Amino acid sequence: MRLPDLSGIQLPREPARLVRRSLRHVAGTLLGLVLGPLLVLTALLMLVRWRGPFRRVRGWELSRLRRAYRLQLDDQAGDSDGDGDGGGGGDGAFLGGRRALLHGALAGLLGYVMMDLLLLVAAVVLGSFTQSFYGSPVTLEFDLWVISRPAPSVLLIFGTSSLVAAALYAEFAVWLQALLLRRWTDVVRTDALESRISRLLTTRRGVVLAIDDERRRIERDLHDGVQQNIVSLSVTLARARRATDPARSSQLLEQAHAQSQALIDEVRQVAWRIYPTALDEHGLASALDGVAETSPVPVHVDVRLEGEVPQAVESAAYFVAREAVTNVVKHAAASHVRITVVTLAESDRRMLRLSVEDDGIGGANPEGGGLQGLARRVAALDGSVSVDSPAGGPTIISAEIPCD
Questions:
Q1: Residue 9 pLDDT grade (very low, low, confident, very high; cuts 50, 70, 90)
Q2: pLDDT tens across 148-171, in order?
Q3: Residue 172: which residues within 8 A CB-CB, separation 6 or more?
Q4: 204, containing H or E segment
Q5: Are 320 and 385 in contact (CB under 8 A)?
Q6: What pLDDT is attached to residue 321?
């Protein structure tokens, strides 16, 4: 079987996507200045039974909502008579009668404010740009004071802030119109789905990197520990075979036996670091107790889980706690570690919240390879990891993972 070529897949560029989204929203809001009053006018014409213009303008308005705002609307919502309470039969008939008057008035008002804002942006940008060639300052005169600043500064500061204000206002216009439409029909913002897809692509790439990091760590454990001990055991057995003195041979065999027992323990430790069997057999609390027992720094474990927690969530929480404790032992010079795991109900989701706190010297680097690997592992489950580690301590590593 030939595998598909995935080399051409690229992650979406967020800044470019956000700029395109802002431009769509600005243009759509400005277009509402035209379609909003037309919708109101043609809705009034329905009083004399002239329905054709209204249906045409309503179609244009629905197209504006879909193309500029990426609003996915349920066209089957509403009543069936078109008498002012909405209409049925699809084709956006929910937007009829008195609803069209309200929606059109809102769209026209939002479009008028957007036009005024864009005129201000154009005046500031073009005026400042023109005066920059003459070297003359820009003067802003008020009743109480007069401000005179160099034209390039005004162009940079006020021009940029005006463009940002236009983009933010466009976002507000989309939110307000979607809020009104949700009273009459189901509304889904597909650009929000695009953001979600972008996040999933990013976390998928993070999972691949985390797996590669874990493979490298396992390879180091096997190469630097297990493999070296196997070589040492082989050398000891070879010396025992060559020994002519029975007492010397017996001594070497005893040494080889001790080395084999140590090797078995080390293999168990490597397997436990890859994935502890206690996590599957006895749950998260037991696995964290194992971390506490093997840690040279005293660790207090407090686990309060309500209800069933998915195995993937328990596994992610375990590895976060274990890596955090390992970092404490290596770098923090701490005398005590506390691991707390609880489940919380937040709005419509149940979350597992893990925190690992130590009394060490602080200064943990959130960009370090170990913590970044944990963040990628948790992000794959739609969770998040945060690090609070001021100089002097204490250090608190927290993770929140959805349980649903």
A1: very low
A2: 888 888 788 887 888 888 889 999
A3: none
A4: helix 190-221
A5: yes
A6: 85
- The phi, psi pair for 9, rounded to 5°, reads -75, 130
CATH no., domain 279-402: 3.30.565.10
Q: How far apart are CA 342 and CA 379, in angstroms?
A: 19
The secondary structure of the chain in percent helix, strand, coil, rounded to multiples of 5, reads: 60, 15, 25
User: Helix 98-134 vs helix 14-45: angle between axes, to the nearest 10 degrees?
Assistant: 130
Measured CA to CA, the distance from residue 369 to residue 382 in angstroms comes to 20
Give yes or no for a contact between 264 and 229, defined as CB atoms under 8 angstroms apart: no
Q: Which of 37-51, 162-176, 203-217 has the lowest mean pLDDT?
A: 203-217
Q: Residue 314: name the closest of 356, 275, 372 by CA.
A: 275
Three-state DSSP at 53 gives helix
Other CB atoms closer than 10 Å to residue 14's CB: what's the count? 12
Measured CA to CA, the distance from residue 336 to residue 325 in angstroms comes to: 10
Q: Hey, is 140 helix, strand or coil?
A: strand
DSSP per position, 246-315: HHHHHHHHHHHHHHHHHHHHHHHHHHHHH--HHHHHT-HHHHHHHHHHH-SS-EEEEEE--S---HHHHH
Nearest 10 degrees: Cα torsion 29, 33, 38, 44:
100
Question: Could you tell me the two tokens for 27?
Answer: 């243009």
Q: How far apart are CA 337 and CA 324, in angstroms?
A: 10
How confident is residue 223, by pLDDT bands cut at 50, 70 and 90? low
Distance CA 356, CA 334 (A): 12
Amino acid, res. 345: A
For residue 300, CA distances in Å to 119, 305, 320, 343, 400 come to 63, 16, 16, 18, 20
- Asked whether the whole model's pTM tops 0.70, one would answer no
Give CB contacts under 8 A, 24+ apart, made by 83-91.
Answer: 86/184, 91/55, 91/59
Alpha-carbon Rg for the chain, nearest whole angstrom, is: 33
Summary count for the chain: helices (H), strands (E):
11, 9
For 380-385, the CB contacts below 8 A with 24+ separation are: 380/203, 380/204, 380/206, 380/207, 380/210, 381/312, 381/313, 381/316, 382/203, 383/316, 385/320
Going from N- to C-terminal start, the domains of the chain cover 14-185, 195-274, 279-402
